[in-house]
Structures are given as structure tokens and as C-alpha cells.
Amino acid sequence: MTHKSIPTPDSFTLRIDGTDVVAQVGQSILEVAQDHNIGIPTLCYLEGLTPWGGCRLCLVEIKGSGRLLPACSTLATEDMDVTTTSPRIERYRRTIVELLFSERNHICAVCVSNGNCELQTLAQEMGVTHVHVPYRYPTLLVDSSHDGFRLDHNRCVMCTRCVRVCEEIEGAATKGVGGRGIDSMIINDLNEPWGESDTCTSCGKCVSVCPTGALTEKGTTFADMAKRRERRELLPYLTQTREGRR
Amino acid sequence: MTNATRPRLATIWLDGCSGCHMSLLDMDERLIDIASVADIVFSPTVDTKEFPENVDVTLMEGAIGSDEDVEKARKIRSRTKILVSMGDCALTANVVSMRNLFTVEDVLARAYDEPGSGNVPEPRPGESRAPKRYVPKLQTKARPVHEVVEVDYFLPGCPPPADAIHYTITELLAGRAPDPSHLTRFGR
């Protein structure tokens, strides 16, 4: 057991998949599950950034609630009875991954993130070998106007990690979401070419957190993409130090 | 040597690069093991011209890109007990689907008419060199095989590693349902 399992005045007990687990006040279901090595798939969630709850892959069943709730943005409460996997949840999760593949033009074989892509890994882990819905094949642009980085909308899954890291960690708020529904796009400033942005500091944090090949550093190879994960590990530390200063 | 009781295997190459078949050949000496227990009755690697009846397992490489691909896929489906989509083009249309962002006319013009397409002399204005006969007609979009015919098993990879192909074939020959996800994935 980890130190997080030792009861304190701020801790309480709930059940996840039939097992009693100890949680701290203020923890999300996902954080509690991760503390106890219970795997829940995620895509938009990234430790160190505000939970977004947009991808819906971490949906879990909670006894007494008719609808599924996202584990990343639902607070754990005392005596909660959580189920992280069931045929219904598995079906929903697989469908979400299939819809993500069908929405844009994800072609793993020609992507620089091949082998280091979270969407690709999710598909493998969930046994998604083909997509049951028709592909959309939208015509999408690639923004190569920035000197160092590239934004390929074909590979974007709209997780908004880049939007959050840009605002919450870098404080630049260059990245945003434009459009509505299925036409939503990551934009720079007021939908300007990235290279013409007045606010971008070229820090590259957005590239580090991108789960797919949508944001890349120009001139990088397959091998370089593996390093993204290492750079991300700094995020929780940055958040902590910033909170300490407040 | 053929035998009425031996399983009948086939492989077919539709709208793809043949890389999956290269990977199939990468099974090396294991091909001899498979040939000793099953008959390969149709494949780019054998000389049969017409897809035979009563095939037990067919591995289908490539997307459905042309009218001819649709005809072949339907015929093969009707003559095969177990159809396996082999490789990302068959599963997702993959690289082949990159043409889906353009019209067929633009794709053909790019290949046959535009400067740099290798045609000398350049075609006259308003005239296309795209073949009008003999070459199968392209469909509006390249599609995964399972959008056209029912598929029983899916083998991802670009190409699927030889180990994943070998595992899939041997499991099917043993009468089991293969799940090759531990050996391969999209883009592998």
C-alpha cells in the first residue's frame, strides 16, 4: 500500500470495482484510481493541467446514478460505489475511439508520431482494429507558418491539452478553440496563422503535451517524438510550484 | 501436392502497395511449415488466374479503390469461409485514402496530365491522358474492405509483422479465433 492509503483526517473510503479504497478530500475518481493502480483510459486528461472532461474515455458507472460520469472531473465522495469497466463502458469507449478515427484523417503509417501516439495506443489496448462508421475525410489545412512548429488539423483529436498548457502553464493563451461541434478547430489568437501570432512565446509546451501528431516540432523524426513524454513529466511540478506562490 | 482434406488458403492484393505480401514472405522457413499442412490455391505468389471455389481462409490486402476491387471482393467473399482483412489499407484504407480528399478527376489529372507526371510530351490543353480503357475505373473514394463485404478477422499493421501474419494463419488453421493485438497495431 502507498502512503496515500493511510487514513488521515482528510481521507475517506469509497469502493472502486468492489474494493475499498482510501481517498483524500478533493481528489477526482481518476486520481484515486491511479493512486491504487486501477487503470482507467484517458486522452484529454493530463496530470498538471485542469481536467477538461471532453474526450469521455474515462467514463465510469456510479451506483445510484443513471448516467456515466467522467472520472477525471468527478470528485470522489464518501461511500461512492464506482465501476470502471463493464461491457457497456467498454462499448462506449471503443465507439469513442472509432469516432475519433473517423472524424479526421488519421493515417498512422505516414505520421511522425507513429509508435508514440496515444490514440494509436488506445486503439491497440481496446482492440479497435477497424471503424464501424463511415470515414468523413474532411479537407483540412496544415499550418506550417511558425518557424519551429507545425499544426496539422488532420491529426487533431480536440483534447485541448495545448489550449490549457498555453494558458495555465505558459500564461500566453495563444491557443484556443474556434468553430462549433464537429467543425471545432484549434486556433492561434483570433484564428491567425501561427507564425503571425503576437502572443506565442515559441516555448513548445503545446507540442510536448499533444497526444497525437497534430502538433510537432519541424524537422523531428520518429525517435524524437518519444522524448515528448519525458518533457511532460515536468508539468505537475510546474503546477505545484505555481500554486505554492499564490 | 494437393489433398481434398487439406485446408485451402488464398491471398489477394487489391488497392495496396504489396507490402503485406512482402511481410507474408518474411515468414521465411515458416512458409514451408504452412505449405506442408495447407494448400495455397490462389495468391500473387502462385499462378492460378481464376479465384477458386471452396476456399477456407483468404487474406485480403489493400483497400477497395476501383470497380474491379468491388467485384473481386464480392466474388472472393462468396467463395471463402473465413475472410481476413490484412493490413491497414484493408482495415482503414490507410495511405490509399489520402486521395479521398480530392475528386477522381483531379487525382487522374495529377497522375497523368500535370507537369512532372512523367508524360512527354505534355498533353494538349483540355485533353487528358488518363486511360479510358483496360485500367479499372476508380471509385469516388477508396474504402476499407469491411464497408463492401463482411470481414471475419482483422489484422492491423503497415505492414503487419510476419509474426502476426503467421500467428493469424496458424490459429485459423487450428480452428481458433485469432486476436493478434499483442503482436501488431495500426501503423506498425
TrEMBL record, chain A:
<dbReference type="InterPro" id="IPR001041">
    <property type="entry name" value="2Fe-2S_ferredoxin-type"/>
</dbReference>
<keyword id="KW-0001">2Fe-2S</keyword>
<dbReference type="GO" id="GO:0051537">
    <property type="term" value="F:2 iron, 2 sulfur cluster binding"/>
</dbReference>
<feature type="domain" description="2Fe-2S ferredoxin-type">
    <location>
        <begin position="10"/>
        <end position="88"/>
    </location>
</feature>
<dbReference type="InterPro" id="IPR050157">
    <property type="entry name" value="PSI_iron-sulfur_center"/>
</dbReference>
<dbReference type="InterPro" id="IPR000283">
    <property type="entry name" value="NADH_UbQ_OxRdtase_75kDa_su_CS"/>
</dbReference>
<dbReference type="GO" id="GO:0008137">
    <property type="term" value="F:NADH dehydrogenase (ubiquinone) activity"/>
</dbReference>
<feature type="domain" description="4Fe-4S ferredoxin-type">
    <location>
        <begin position="191"/>
        <end position="220"/>
    </location>
</feature>
<protein>
    <submittedName>
        <fullName>NADP-reducing hydrogenase subunit HndC</fullName>
        <ecNumber>1.12.1.3</ecNumber>
    </submittedName>
</protein>
<dbReference type="Pfam" id="PF13510">
    <property type="entry name" value="Fer2_4"/>
</dbReference>
<dbReference type="GO" id="GO:0042773">
    <property type="term" value="P:ATP synthesis coupled electron transport"/>
</dbReference>
<keyword id="KW-0472">Membrane</keyword>
<dbReference type="GO" id="GO:0016020">
    <property type="term" value="C:membrane"/>
</dbReference>
<feature type="domain" description="4Fe-4S ferredoxin-type">
    <location>
        <begin position="147"/>
        <end position="178"/>
    </location>
</feature>
<dbReference type="GO" id="GO:0046872">
    <property type="term" value="F:metal ion binding"/>
</dbReference>
<dbReference type="Pfam" id="PF22117">
    <property type="entry name" value="Fer4_Nqo3"/>
</dbReference>
<keyword id="KW-0004">4Fe-4S</keyword>
<dbReference type="GO" id="GO:0051539">
    <property type="term" value="F:4 iron, 4 sulfur cluster binding"/>
</dbReference>
<keyword id="KW-0411">Iron-sulfur</keyword>
<comment type="similarity">
    <text>Belongs to the complex I 75 kDa subunit family.</text>
</comment>
<keyword id="KW-0479">Metal-binding</keyword>
<keyword id="KW-0408">Iron</keyword>
Automatic annotation (TrEMBL), chain B:
<feature type="region of interest" description="Disordered">
    <location>
        <begin position="113"/>
        <end position="132"/>
    </location>
</feature>
<feature type="domain" description="NADH:ubiquinone oxidoreductase-like 20kDa subunit">
    <location>
        <begin position="17"/>
        <end position="172"/>
    </location>
</feature>
<dbReference type="GO" id="GO:0047985">
    <property type="term" value="F:hydrogen dehydrogenase activity"/>
</dbReference>
<keyword id="KW-0560">Oxidoreductase</keyword>
<dbReference type="GO" id="GO:0003677">
    <property type="term" value="F:DNA binding"/>
</dbReference>
<keyword id="KW-0371">Homeobox</keyword>
<dbReference type="InterPro" id="IPR006137">
    <property type="entry name" value="NADH_UbQ_OxRdtase-like_20kDa"/>
</dbReference>
<dbReference type="Pfam" id="PF01058">
    <property type="entry name" value="Oxidored_q6"/>
</dbReference>
<dbReference type="GO" id="GO:0051536">
    <property type="term" value="F:iron-sulfur cluster binding"/>
</dbReference>
<dbReference type="InterPro" id="IPR037024">
    <property type="entry name" value="NiFe_Hase_small_N_sf"/>
</dbReference>
<protein>
    <submittedName>
        <fullName>NAD-reducing hydrogenase HoxS subunit delta</fullName>
        <ecNumber>1.12.1.2</ecNumber>
    </submittedName>
</protein>
<dbReference type="InterPro" id="IPR051349">
    <property type="entry name" value="Hydrogenase_assoc-protein"/>
</dbReference>
